[in-house]
Amino acid sequence: MDAKYFVMALVLISLAGNAWAASPAPVLAEKGMVVSDSREATEVGVAILERGGNAVDAAVAVGFALAVTHPSAGNLGGGGFMVAHMADGSTFTLDYRETAPSAAHRDLYLDEHGEVIPGLSRNTHLASGVPGSVDGLLRALRDHGSGKLSQRDVIEPAIKLARRGFPLSRFLASALNGYCSTFEAHPGSRESFIKSNGDPWRAGDRFTQSSLGKTLQRIAKNGPDGFYRGPVADAIVSEMQRGNGIITHADLAAYASKYREPVRGTFGEHEIISMPPPSSGGVHVVQMLNMLAKLSIADYGWNGSDYVHRLTEVQRRAYADRAEHLGDPDFWDVPVTMLTSAEYATELADAIDLTSATPSVEIDAGSAAPREGNDTTHYSIVDQFGNLVSVTTTINLGFGSGIAVQGAGFLLNNEMDDFSAKPGVPNAFGLLGNEANAIEPGKRMLSSMTPTIVLKNGDPYLVVGSPGGSTIITTVLQIILNTAIHKMDVQEAVSAPRVHSQWMPDVIAVEPRALQPDVVQRLERMGHVLEPRGKWGSANSILINSRGVWGAADSRQGNSFAAGY
Ligand code: DON
Fold first, then answer.
1. What are the pocket residues of ligand 1 if the criterion is a CB atom closer than 6 Å to any ligand atom?
2. 191 backbone dihedrals φ, ψ, rounded to 5°
3. Mind listing the pLDDT tens digit for each residue in 480-498?
4. Which residue has its alpha carbon closest to ligand 1 atom 12?
5. Which residue has the CA at smallest separation from atom 11 of ligand 1?
6. Secondary structure (3-state) at 493
């Protein structure tokens, strides 16, 4: 695209909203902080912390609250990842990603000619993996909660929000109205998300969800069995039968969240603790930081052409590896050690041409790899004891499959689209995959979600993560760089406009105001293709330093809210 038109396109997108203006100060608190995509959910979390609960108690309560107040992404019918660093120095990463139902198979979304059937993995009953959120959240509470708060204590605020309702924000009212025709097509979605008189939702309308309230009540009473067995499981299976879905009672009863070994890396004085496979996020953030360290990235000014060139070259190499090597580690030998090693980063970084773009078609995944054993939401929590929790959770695309379970009030995910339906055919985020991420019964689909914790000289420093599909990983990378080397405060680091590339398609996606016109021109002369992009993830983050705990709600999402105490 001609540089002049490119800059004009960026201006137009920025006028349409989602622009970065001078960022306000982050929210400062003395003891603890919660930052999420919903004011009500954040307030639920702060109330738990004020009662003496720890960050895990609060994370569980916020997770259930988001299932009520942020239905496009918060969920009971999806999955997520939790990364925590506890005050005693221990760390855990919990994987409650959805699994492929037992009747799923590699060619599930192909027609008789072997071609992908459009939409099948996105907006049908076949699009859903077996949900993991309820098992994961309750496991975290059981194993890492303070012990002061019961299952009921942390779910009760969500039950109240569902039963009594809450005033719709302008943002949520318009999101619900935007999906009206999808909701109309499914009785469960109609009963939960369409106004009873059929009118459009307006800001300030009280939004109640009685079926969801009953489901939450059952979970509060019976724990995971309140969801994976009994009436809620029956409702999920009936919903499946209504639309030729394949999740069975046995699939639900068999679901189990899993602890994984965190991915770790270092970047100068910073230690990175992040989510391992079945997320690709942690592996590639560490891999890219390793390469950037070799390329002396700290010597270059923020978003100048040399800086963005290095970011892009590093990103395209990481995403090429993602397509080839990443998948569920229970089914595929993911070479985590090799991908996150300094030696491999040196090999890749040495091959980067520092003056011109390497076409992505010339980049292959590291073949020497030794084999070894839109919608998502991110929230960050820090408590008074020094525990840090980073959670990203998703039903995949906005409002998931669009199909809510009739009588149970929650939306089903369309996470199956994160599998590679067929080698060479991109998913909704343009991501390619291969054998490593092929569909198999019981397997977890590869994710980009990157809940991450950064320590600085061994002390808690940053809690970060984001929604945004394939852009999640590069968003987390840039926020780490913005704080670690550009010394931005956490709000500036989160608000700063971003760039993203992912190997294929071979373009740099650019947020409005991310690049000055002369930088655009220089990058184009180096052979890069730039493309304006309007939608980026809401990376709700927290930074801790000697002055206190600083929360940054990302204004890219209308309802994000930081509060501390
Ligand atoms: O797990 C993943 O990578 C995707 N399902 C995340 C989807 C997402 O971030 C959509 N949100 N904006």
1. 374-376, 394, 396, 415, 418, 447-449, 467-469, 472, 537
2. -65, -30
3. 999 999 999 999 999 999 9
4. 374
5. 374
6. helix
